[in-house]
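Following up on my earlier thread - several people asked me to post the actual chain instead of describing it. Fair enough. Here it is, all 359 residues.
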Amino acid sequence: MQREWDGDAAATLLDWYDAERRDLPWRAAPGTVPDPYHVWLSEVMLQQTTVKAVIPYFEKFLARWPTIEALAAADLDDVLSAWAGLGYYSRARNLHRCARKIVQEHDGQFPRSEAELLKLPGIGPYTAAAIAAIAFDEPTTPVDGNIERVVARLFAVREPLPAAKPLLRHLATKLTPPRRSGDFAQALMDLGATVCTPKRPSCLVCPLSRSCLAQAAGLQASLPAREAKGERPTRFGVAFLALREDGCILLRRRPNTGLLARMMEVPGTEWLDDPRVVTEALRAAPIRADWWPVPGQVMHTFTHFKLELIVYRAVVPVDATLTFWADPSRCRWVPRREIDRQALPSLMHKVIAHALREM
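Reply from S.P.:
Thanks for posting it. Predicted structure:
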């Protein structure tokens, strides 16, 4: 069931936004011109991440790299270290690549059009549309999860996600007014985040309740529908926490490509589908030592699989020699007090905390 969008409702939503807009550090104040660098940085950080989690990272990045030129001149390892904890680390690598390309090929100026923005590293259709609309008020429509939910309810779209995405994108485009497209997109985002929430939407205070077909049919809590997800497979591995007698911990840089590329890790085995990898793990220890299994496991969930790690711990002398399996060229000893400064993903913080408990 669908109907033509009422232009008056678009004006109503913009009026609501003017009064109720969220105060976010990357948003330009009313009447001021948005900074494309702030818009881009926030949109990349917000992919797969909540606003609450992003705010301190955004502020830390801006304090350290206040311009795109500063970010382009930064060392990638410093960027990865500052990103640690946000997850989806390919975003940080693409962020750095994109900054350098904009500085080198665009004189530090962001392209205005979606087509040109899409040519930049790490910028997909949603991010390109968001930058074009919010930073430059181009007549385009970004569609994130909040906007999908609002549109699915407004038009009572019963087709489940992700199959419904093309239809929802088309309907969102029909909603967008010819002026203030950036404000309108942010209004839809704010509406989805604060009123038209996934569970228990606040229809009584929604400015679009009279235009909402799902609310009229009593379907608002059940839309958008989603296809059932299959169970994530589980992978298994072993991590080796080597603590040197001088208080240093052995870390290793991961390869330049693949999952958690270029991040630091506690050396360990490959992560395999076969749990028997655990029984053969000591062959891959980075140092010949008396390794002791730490009771319990470290559990972590990635996008496409779950991971179970057994952790071994050993105290080794200062002159300990690394084995072939350690890949010594990628290893370094780091003082415990400096661990938080390293580009460690949250998984490895879990491993270190687990290994050092009761020590």
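The first helix runs from residue 7 to 20. That should answer part of your original question.
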